[in-house]
Amino acid sequence: MEPSKATIFYCEGLWTQADSAKLTRVLATLQPEVNKPFVIEGSKVNALDSVGALLLTNFAQHWQSLGWVVQWNGFSEAQKDVFALIKEYVAEPPTVPPQPALPWLWMQTLGQKTVNLGLQLWAFFSFVGVIFYEGLGWCKAPHKIRFKSICNSIQATGTRATFIVALLSFLIGVVLTYQVAVQLRNYGANIFVVDFLGIAILREFGPMITAIIIAGRTGSSYAAQIGTMKLTEEVAALQTMGLSPVEVLVLPRVTALLFALPLLVILSEVMALFGGMVMARAMLALSFFDFIQRFSYAVDLQTFIIGLIKVPVFALLIATIGTFQGFQVKDSAASVGERTTISVVQGIFMIIVVDAAFSILFSFLGL
Q1: Which of 45, 201, 281, 327 is the most interior residue, by most CB within 10 Å?
Q2: How many CB atoms lie within 10 A of CB 360?
Q3: Pairing assessment for the beta strands 38-48 and 7-15 based on DSSP bridges
Q4: In angstroms, rounded to a whole number, what is the distance separating the alpha carbons of residues 345 and 322?
């Protein structure tokens, strides 16, 4: 082959481990000419070790996989022996499987996502089954109930969340009253702001807003705590000692949220109504006495109970999703952040879906 009809790359100087970074940058910039053989010329190489030989071998294999003809020239017998050892003991780079044609690529992506979603759902429902089984164990043997862990979780998820729940609920009551009062004032129907606030807050806004706040605050905390314990092998240590991680880590958190969330919802509703009372007095000149009197007439106990029925379901969703995502953490700190984010997103999504399902059910039942 005539040199003029080939692209020649002259290797010069030292091709050793000490110069590997510089050599890698040089090789990355090369681009053989189209339809010409590529010749690697090694007559001017002063020193060659296994690292340099591996760089050149990988470089040649890359261009051969793209269709170029690579030839070797000028290397000494000792250097050829190094290349032979590299080819003998270093595995061939894995070949990239051919990609499907573009019109079918979306089908492959959809299929993969569907399979992954199915596996995640199966793992989640299996996790729920384990929680239910361990919960039955507590019912059969009450002495196994970890009251101290439950109380600590109630303090973390309930007591410490009261301020943020109360503040946000008060502001929500103020905003709702302001939006409604602007319209009612035009028609002289100021008193009906009480009807709207009572029904909307007790049936929908109080339970749902509180559950969303707790999903962002407590659900993420559950995922981060259990995920960190898995990284530090505390979960594995529990299994080594013969203890169930679900019984020790999950059941106390689920039980605590079942107790704490209804109380937080009641607090949220009281503060939202109080915010509405303050705003109604400021905008509509509606006194606190008139507000309370109209509230007792317009809102009955059934409205409060309907809103509270949904709360245990929200608590189970938040606690189960948070703890499940914590157990899905892999061997990296980035995985903790990823699973924490997923727990918040999935928790809020499921709260809204379940709330919509309850609304449809109540409408169907005429409640």
Answers
A1: 201
A2: 9
A3: parallel
A4: 10
- Tallying the residues shown for the chain, one arrives at 367
Grouping H, G, I as helix, E, B as strand and the rest as coil, residue 31 is coil
Q: Encode pLDDT of 249-269 as tens digits.
A: 888 899 999 999 999 999 999
User: pLDDT tens-digit profile of 333-352?
Assistant: 788 888 888 889 989 999 99
7: phi then psi, degrees, rounded to nearest 5: -90, 125
Please state, as a whole number, how many other Cβ atoms lie within 10 Å of the Cβ of residue 181.
20
Helix (H, G, I), strand (E, B) or coil at 198: helix
Instruction: Report DSSP state, residue 159.
Output: G
DSSP 95-162: PPPPPPPHHHHHHHHHHHHHHHHHHHHHHHHHHHHHHHHHHHHHHH-GGG--HHHHHHHHHHHTGGGH
Contact (Cβ atoms closer than 8 angstroms) between residue 46 and residue 17? no
Where along the chain do its domains lie? 3-89, 134-365
Pick the CATH number of 3-89 from 3.40.50.11740, 3.90.180.10, 3.40.830.10, 3.30.750.24: 3.30.750.24
